[in-house]
Amino acid sequence: MFAFQTNPLNRHGDVRHTDDFITPIISSSDAYYLPVYQQSIACEVNDKHLAPLWLSYRQLHFKSQPPARKHLIYLGEVDSKHYFTYRLKSVDLLNHVTLDDQAPSIELCGLRELFKRLSPEEAHVCNVAIAIEHWHNTHQYCGYCGHKTYAAQAGFVRICSHAQCQQQHFPRTDSAVICAITYQDELLLGRQKSWPEKRYSVIAGFVEPGETLEQAVVREAYEETGLALSQVRYYQSQPWPFPQSLMVGFTAEAQSNQISLLDKELEDARWFSRTALKEAVETGELVLPFEYSISRKLINQWLIESV
Ligand SMILES: [Zn+2]
């Protein structure tokens, strides 16, 4: 299991767009609201505690005004509790939520920072919250006619406000491929110049229009390393909300070990035996990707395979 794979939410996609379903839930005591602002999550903070700030409907009133329904996104139900995101238009609004007397202080936190403190179920809910909030923020205008769009259907559609257009826009996910490439008993790892120092990972890139996932793997591998691949096999996938990707994992075999950094996206790429990779990690010469990422899982999977 790795990050964001657990999915506890019943999203009620068949009824969430109906007033009959959503209106009674909004002000009920079973509804919880998570304020988010530009991919950051409102958190309650004290000396030992950092956790997402789930508010009741009563607490979500700003200056005694109820929350604007157009900023609510219905995430789904878990154990008879209903979860929403509230899209903050301004950070200042956090100063006006109605907390109890013993209230903690509130800060905005990124999901990367918060992730290790969350259960897999909470991480998934927060993932959905910031991914769809990002989509709303970046789809304020209609791509067909340029007029403003507005949120509808519990936050899962934006509709163009121009009477002659009214185009519906749906949340987008960017497909990316990520591949553990091997040659005999060695694994290929590369690094981009912009990454943290000594960080190496497997090869990845975005799928282009008209490609199959397997074709994207073959193209990315060639562009970044000059290698031709065979035996491209699907592994697993991982939602990756930084900001809105789905990482689709593969394994593949290189037809040679001659590396050529053709598109210069990587500043270095090398082959590692299992022994050499373990040593490089132990000595600190090399740093592997985030523990809960599919890239790390691909590397760990290869490390434990018998030769
Ligand atoms: Zn339009």
Automatic annotation (TrEMBL):
The keyword Hydrolase applies. PROSITE patterns: NUDIX, NUDIX_BOX. Residues 171-300 form the Nudix hydrolase domain. Keywords: Hydrolase, Magnesium, Metal-binding, NAD. It is an enzyme of class 3 (hydrolase). Its EC number is 3.6.1.22. Its cofactor is Zn(2+); Mg(2+). Gene3D superfamilies: 3.90.79.20, Nucleoside Triphosphate Pyrophosphohydrolase. It catalyses: a 5'-end NAD(+)-phospho-ribonucleoside in mRNA + H2O = a 5'-end phospho-adenosine-phospho-ribonucleoside in mRNA + beta-nicotinamide D-ribonucleotide + 2 H(+). It comes from the Bacteria. Belongs to the Nudix hydrolase family. NudC subfamily. This is NAD(+) diphosphatase.
